[in-house]
Amino acid sequence: MQSLSEGVRSKIPWQELAMNAEESAELFAITAEHFLRTIACKPTFPVRLTRKPATWKAGEVIEWRDSHRFG
For a Cys-Cys bond, which of 32, 38, 62, 66 suits 22, CB 3.0-4.6 Å? Predict the structure, then answer.
């Protein structure tokens, strides 16, 4: 899978960009392995864009994180 050039990426809204497990895990301050085992597998978590490597839409991951914060 070829990644997008910076010129193309800069024209796509950040919410639509794909995030992998490592990037998504950073938002939760956990490891990618822990993220995949405990968060990404939840039925309410956004649907993956791709399976291997696992990716999700950035905006959906952030929206889910924000709506599932406690305290």
Answer: 32
